[in-house]
Amino acid sequence: MFPWWTLKGDKYCLEILAGALEGRYWLGNRDKRARLTGHFLGFYAGGGKYDLQWKENGYQGEFFIAAGISYGYTRKIARHLRLEFNIGLGVLRTQYRHYHALDNYQTLQWQENGNYTWIGPTKVKVSLVWVLDRKTKKGGAR
After folding, report:
1. CB atoms within 10 A of CB 37
2. By CB neighbour count within 10 A (0-12 exposed, 13-18 middle, 19+ buried), where does 46 fall?
3. DSSP structure class, residue 33
4. Most buried of 3, 13, 63, 116 (most Cβ within 10 A)?
């Protein structure tokens, strides 16, 4: 999702490494020329690890997991390009470590460990999708 970013001398940190899988059911249009376009419903699951810090307060998690249902819409913008909008509702579960950054953000002082569960929106996505397509000849060579 995000690379390992630190800003302003380690004062702000956004480090998220995650991946997910999603199965989709496409609604409506069955035209071969408009494949993978229109509305869809899906089920997704994924996970990853993170380190989020805002000034002196931060949270680290070695693993989080999220799963739920999604709705989306994909629009064709060129022969092989699609623009996709997607939102997901589900559950997110993580074990975290809360810390304070000391010594000019070079030392982390652990405050507490805990578990966190969120039920609600767990995914919002806008994607540019490149559709790989192969041509096949009908009826063989002539």
Report:
1. 20
2. buried
3. G
4. 13
The two structure tokens encoding residue 77: 């913008």
Please give the Cα distance from 4 to 13 (Å, whole number). Answer: 8
E strand map for 1-142: 4-7, 12-26, 38-54, 57-76, 81-102, 107-130
| Predicted confidence (pLDDT) per residue in 37-73, tens digit | 899 999 999 999 988 888 888 888 888 999 999 999 9
The pLDDT tens digits for 77-134 are 998 899 999 999 999 999 998 888 787 766 777 788 889 999 999 999 999 999 887 6
Query: Alpha helices of the chain — where are they, by DSSP H?
Result: none
The CA distance from 52 to 124, in Å, is 19
pTM for the full model?
A: 0.73
Round to whole Å and give the CA distance between 22 and 124. 13
The secondary structure of 51-77 as a DSSP string is EEEETTEEEEEEEEEEEEEEEEEEEE-
In degrees and rounded to multiples of 5, residue 31 shows phi and psi of -65, 130
C-beta neighbour count of 53 within 10 angstroms: 22
Longest CA pairwise span in the chain (Å): 76
